[in-house]
């Protein structure tokens, strides 16, 4: 049975902050849902009432008379107390009775680096009304949600779906892409990473291109160039497709930024993750079944070895298979959300998949 009442989505995420990963997820959902997602939720009451009032008030008026739901996007992390408050505030300010998350992420309980900065408050998430968890990004997230919230299938990181809905035109170059930095600095020894990637590039007869996913990482790239010399830098300036094409054109990609790794894997590029937090291990588990081999204490020789091993054709084939499966399950989640927008009343979360925590 279809409803005659118009339905609308309000997007809650970290978009419009010049961060490639968050913009990549935002652009995926716009393309996958064939919707502009131009009603976006600010992150504080002050922003609703003052700084972003000029955008919020017209959106709120335009959505009057519709049935509204919040769509959790890039930057949101299930379990974090701060994001539960952002989500509740968005529901209250937009009068939304539903909330959808598809490909949600969560920090592992032992991830002190992350949780010291963003503590868990699972009770706050359990209190959110009308919350449909259509699927999670990765297996560690699935375990956390099953223990603290509810079982949910692993459907993949939404950014993996980007090449399935937006055609790439890679700019081929004989180079290794290197993206170092997180929160404006790096947890890795910059000189060790530079030497490790440089040795791998020499063995592969390739150049090196630095990738800057956000302006905050500029000091890290300056430090890398102090070791590597005057190598080119690809800076994200808001053009998601352009950055994806640049990543897709590299021979291999080494990244501390999670969505540098996700983008490379999505584009079929040999990727070497530099894991600084549990979300990096969680993603790698979702496409390889293993945690990342490199840690913040890894040496140049270990980094070189990992980069060379990443080009193994058998390993790349296995990863490609997992990416294709995630693209399929992400597309199914997007289809269910589109169905809701079109007035369908079928459950957004299939009962069997939700109960078992399997792929939808």
Keywords:
transferase activity, four-stranded parallel sheet, globular, Polysacch_pyruvyl_Trfase, Polysaccharide pyruvyl transferase, Rossmann fold, 360 residues, five-stranded parallel sheet, 9 strands
Tell me what the structure shows.
The protein has two domains: 7-164 and 325-356, 3-Layer(aba) Sandwich (Rossmann fold); 169-311, 3-Layer(aba) Sandwich (Rossmann fold), CATH 3.40.50.2000. 46% of the residues lie in helices and 13% in strands. It has 16 helices and nine strands. The strands form two sheets. Strands 7-6-5-8-9 form a five-stranded parallel sheet, with helices on both faces. Strands 1-2-3-4 form a four-stranded parallel sheet, with helices on both faces. Helix 2 (45-51) packs across helix 3. The two termini are 23 Å apart.
Q: Ends: how far apart?
A: 23 Å
Mass-distribution shape: globular
Number of helices: 16
Structural class: alpha/beta
CATH class placement of the largest domain: Alpha Beta
- Strand content is 5-15%
Strand order of the largest sheet: 7-6-5-8-9
- Provide mean pLDDT, rounded: 94
Biggest pleated sheet: 5 strands, parallel
Q: Helicity level, as a percent range?
A: 40-55%
CATH architecture group name of the largest domain: 3-Layer(aba) Sandwich
Radius of gyration: 20 Å
Unreliable spans? none
GO molecular function: transferase activity
Protein name: Polysaccharide pyruvyl transferase
Keywords: Transferase
Domain Polysaccharide pyruvyl transferase: 19-277
